[in-house]
């Protein structure tokens, strides 16, 4: 019998003007939907704190040994479900929920400036957009140099590129939590499909 795949999907706690964080609400809806019968789905809420992310992420990767970790965050500027291609190491000056920001302004001293996901987000976007889902999907290369970008970079580093980040708009602008959950489900299944297809093909993760 084929072993079940394990996927971790995270959302963030409330912060700033986002007193309800659409990312965590959508991830909880996704948990109700499930991904597929042959996939173990684990969800977690991530604090909007740099130091908490530093300790939480390694434990998620070690505890579950996932094939893929997908982080979901909210963006007040987003009007589409936005797939982020890469995470950035430097430029973290915005204070977190504990009024803290890294002294070095970076995720990892000496780490590469940018780490790409092994997943081709343009390909995922095209496939999901042509599936008649009714939710607009786009691709970005700038996750915003805050906890979203920070979390993504750390996860890409730990998972050797087997991570993804998805920005969602605030609830009702224009999508409901259920619409966002269905979009996340479609996106994640497409990502797994692509990863399966590309197995064995060598991929250079670190951009110098």
UniProtKB/TrEMBL annotation:
Q: Which UniProt keywords apply?
A: Cytoplasm, Hydrolase, Protease, Thiol protease
Q: Return one Gene Ontology term, BP aspect.
A: proteolysis
One GO cellular component this record assigns the protein to is: cytosol
| Keyword Protease found | yes
Q: Which GO terms describe its molecular function?
A: pyroglutamyl-peptidase activity
Pfam families to which the protein is assigned, alphabetical: Peptidase_C15
Location, primary (coarse class)? cytoplasm
- Enzymatic reactions: Release of an N-terminal pyroglutamyl group from a polypeptide, the second amino acid generally not being Pro
The record's annotation in PROSITE patterns points to: PYRASE_CYS
SUPFAM superfamilies the record matches: Pyrrolidone carboxyl peptidase (pyroglutamate aminopeptidase)
Intracellular or extracellular location(s): Cytoplasm
**What Enzyme Commission number(s) does the record list for this chain?**
3.4.19.3
Q: Where is the active site?
A: 148
What's its job? Removes 5-oxoproline from various penultimate amino acid residues except L-proline.
PANTHER family, per the entry: PROTEASE FAMILY C15 PYROGLUTAMYL-PEPTIDASE I-RELATED, PYROGLUTAMYL-PEPTIDASE I
- Subunit annotation: Monomer.
The family annotation for this protein states: Belongs to the peptidase C15 family.
**Name of the featured protein:** Pyroglutamyl-peptidase I
Organism ancestry: Eukaryota, Metazoa, Chordata, Craniata, Vertebrata
């Amino acid at each position: 019998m084929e072993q079940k795949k394990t996927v971790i999907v995270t959302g963030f706690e409330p912060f700033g003007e986002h007193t309800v964080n659409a990312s965590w609400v959508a991830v909880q809806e996704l948990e109700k939907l499930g991904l597929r019968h042959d996939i173990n789905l684990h969800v977690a809420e991530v604090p909007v704190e740099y130091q908490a992310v530093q300790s939480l992420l390694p434990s998620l990767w070690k505890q579950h040994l996932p094939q893929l970790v997908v982080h979901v965050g909210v963006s007040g500027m987003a009007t589409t479900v936005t797939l982020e291609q890469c995470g950035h190491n430097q430029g973290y000056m915005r204070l977190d929920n504990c009024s803290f920001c890294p002294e070095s302004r970076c995720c990892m001293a000496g780490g590469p400036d940018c780490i790409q996901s092994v997943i081709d987000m343009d390909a995922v976007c095209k496939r999901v957009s042509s599936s008649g889902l009714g939710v607009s999907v786009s691709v970005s290369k700038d996750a915003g140099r805050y906890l979203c970008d920070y979390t993504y970079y750390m996860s890409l580093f730990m998972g050797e590129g087997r991570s993804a980040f998805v920005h969602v708009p605030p609830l009702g602008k224009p999508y409901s939590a259920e619409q966002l959950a269905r979009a996340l489900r479609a996106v994640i299944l497409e990502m797994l499909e692509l990863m399966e297809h590309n197995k064995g093909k060598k991929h250079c993760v670190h951009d110098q």
